[in-house]
Specification:
Strand content: 15-25%
CATH topology of the largest domain: Glutamine Phosphoribosylpyrophosphate, subunit 1, domain 1
CATH class of the largest domain: Alpha Beta
Structural class: alpha/beta
Radius of gyration: 26 Å
Largest sheet: 8 strands, antiparallel
Bound molecules: 5-amino-5-deoxy-1-O-phosphono-D-mannitol
């Protein structure tokens, strides 16, 4: 999603703003721009496409100014053109904006009727005209922004500078995160702390509804009622500020390789390694009395939740309702008394997940969230959080966050099972033993990476690929298809293996590779029968399994040989080959692996 950077500095800031924007590139964007205050007023440079285009523009036509704002835009209203790129400005004010102004049409009509001329198709430009309108009416800078904020409906984060005061920046947060960085005689604004890492690690996060008046020596924060408030200045943890590929070609590759370590960290957070007992945080309700669990999330995080449904229903015997957040938020689903609602989100800022969380809260559910970013909005609006310890995930394709989410959810399932008397001590020891061995198994799969190169070459020729799985391997099949399509742009679908003959089998011919995830568990024979049906129709099979070749009874194009693991953890270990298949296929095809087209890392609009 879009990124915001603002600096009130001691030297010219345009270069530093672009550098900071580069740290936000992972969020996805399609144009960029920077505006500063110079003697003659506000000046800006903008460019379509990547930041290098903006840098080239700044070389052609340099931009001075010790105060400025910058933005990477992920188009929502209007095409990703230079005209629609931020910052937007009038002679008096310049604005960068993340999020969506829902009532922009009526505001725009009002401004047009008042004689304003719009140059872009964006909702953001409405904000510029509104602030200018109030300034022209004699309001102070702060009053003009306050009046404007009251007119806006939607979710947004704003950075605003004014032509006539180069020691002033106003920030506002409603639904999209914003962080203020404190320097010495300098102050910074960023849509996340990562952007501010080169400048400072002293950070203040704005709360929902806050707005702030930033000057080089002072920061004043007001809440949504206009009451002056203090928000804590926190030290951003070093890990959260490290954005470095190390020796890896892509962040995604680095993140795949980090999994043994970050999964261990996450497990260690929820398991007492000396007793092999699960100890999750107090969720603020008696787990023994939880009659129903509701899970909601988007994309990869949703698939993590879907695996958790199998775990919780099977091991804790609690019914689980799960839906993608974009549906659940509008479904008006009835929710059980004494229900636990669990939200899974790497970023903790996903708009649909947040909206569903609020719906569940309003309907009396206890809210627990599984998040990677502990300072995120979803974390802050939850009754309890179960953090994952994945560290910053930069690649748009979620990898290490997924396996860490699964690790935390597995511990939640065990805790529920114990509380409800469904998991005794022996079973707990067995399941925890399986979990603690998992990082080693993940490591062994990652080490076989070279085996994926010929397979990736073969898969890159396909137009369509099917993924099949049963039981807990079904969500992994869907996750495999999502991973492949989002970074290689090859069309892929994941199906429950048993659904094959209800339609998808019509697609099978020798051109369609079928990736079958079939660990040697209780459902193995059933999945293999479905695989044989594919083979009989000329389908080319890639089997991800720990079973020996004599167990297949059909010819396979390629076997990804998996370690034999406890069925409880097999969906987590099976996630690794599907990540490696997607990664190497995409690399072979030469796509932008870390920033795939049209995608954003943090989806803060619905
Ligand atoms: O930050 P979140 O976990 O809430 O994000 C949810 C999805 O947008 C995300 O998992 C997306 O599907 C990934 N790009 C998949 O790799």
């Amino acid at each position: 999603m879009c990124g915001i950077v603002g600096i009130l500095g001691k030297e010219d800031v345009a270069h530093d703003i672009v550098d900071a924007l580069r740290r936000l590139e992972y969020r996805g964007y399609d144009s960029a721009g920077v505006a500063t205050i110079v003697e003659r007023g506000l000046q800006r440079r903008r460019a379509e496409g990547k930041l290098r285009n903006l840098e080239a523009r700044l070389v052609e036509v340099p931009l001075g100014g010790k105060a400025g704002i910058g933005h990477t835009r992920w188009a929502t209203h209007g095409k990703p053109t230079e005209t629609n790129a931020h910052p937007h400005m009038s002679a008096r004010v310049s604005v960068v904006h993340n999020g969506i102004i829902e009532n922009f049409r009526e505001l725009r009509d009002e401004m047009v009727a008042a004689g304003c001329q719009f140059e872009s198709e964006t909702d953001t430009e409405t904000i510029v005209h509104l602030i200018t309108h109030y300034l022209d009416a004699g309001k102070s800078h702060l009053e003009a922004v306050q009046e404007t904020l009251q007119r806006l409906t939607g979710a947004f984060a704003l950075g605003i500078i004014f032509a006539d005061d180069d020691d002033l920046m106003i920030a506002a947060r409603q639904g999209s995160p914003l962080a203020i960085g404190h320097g010495t005689g300098e102050v910074y604004l960023g849509s996340d702390a990562i952007a501010l890492a080169p400048f400072t690690n002293k950070i203040t996060y704005l709360d929902e509804g806050d707005y702030a008046v930033l000057r080089r020596e002072t920061v004043e924060i007001y809440d949504r009622d206009g009451v002056r408030v203090e928000r804590p200045k926190v030290q951003a943890v070093a890990g959260a500020l490290t954005v470095d590929k190390g020796n890896h070609r892509h962040f995604m590759h680095k993140e795949i390789h980090e999994q043994p370590e970050v999964v261990s960290h996450t497990l260690a957070h929820y398991i007492d390694m000396s007793t092999h007992q699960v100890a999750i945080p107090d969720l603020g309700l008696d787990l023994a009395k939880v009659d129903r669990v509701t899970i909601s999330a988007c994309g990869t995080a949703y698939y993590a939740g879907l695996v958790a449904k199998y775990w919780i229903e099977r091991y804790a015997r609690v019914p689980v309702e799960i839906d993608v957040a974009s549906e659940m938020r509008y479904r008006e689903a009835p929710l059980a008394d004494n229900g636990l609602a669990v939200f899974v989100s790497q970023s903790g800022e996903t708009a649909d997940t947040l909206a569903t969380l609020r719906y569940c809260k309003e309907n009396g559910q206890r809210i627990a969230s599984i998040v990677n970013v502990r300072s995120s909005t979803i974390a802050r609006e939850s009754d309890a959080i179960m953090p994952i310890l994945a560290g910053p995930e930069i690649g748009v394709a979620s990898t290490k966050a997924f396996t860490c989410q699964l690790s935390a959810l597995a511990c939640l399932a065990i805790a529920l099972g114990k509380a409800r008397g469904q998991i005794d001590e022996a079973l707990e020891q067995e399941l925890v033993g399986a979990l603690t061995e998992m990082p080693r198994h993940i490591s062994s799969v990652v080490r076989t990476e070279a085996d994926y190169l010929p397979l990736a070459t073969e898969l890159s020729k396909a137009r369509d690929i099917l993924y099949l799985g049963r039981g807990m391997s079904f969500p992994i099949a869907m996750e495999g298809a999502l991973k492949l399509k989002e970074i290689s742009y090859i069309h892929a679908e994941g199906y429950a293996a048993g659904e094959l003959k209800h339609g998808p089998i019509a697609l099978i011919d020798e051109k369609v590779p079928v990736i079958v995830i079939a660990p040697k568990d209780a459902l193995f024979e059933k999945t293999i029968s479905n695989m044989q049906e594919v083979a009989a129709r000329g389908g080319r099979i890639v089997l991800v399994s720990d079973a020996p070749p004599e167990a297949f009874g059909a010819e396979v194009m390629h076997q990804v040989v998996m370690p034999t693991v406890h069925p409880f953890v097999s969906p987590i270990v099976s996630a690794i080959p599907i990540q490696l298949i997607a990664y190497h296929t995409a690399v072979f095809m030469g796509t932008d692996v870390d920033q795939p087209r049209n995608l954003a890392k943090s989806v803060t609009v619905e």
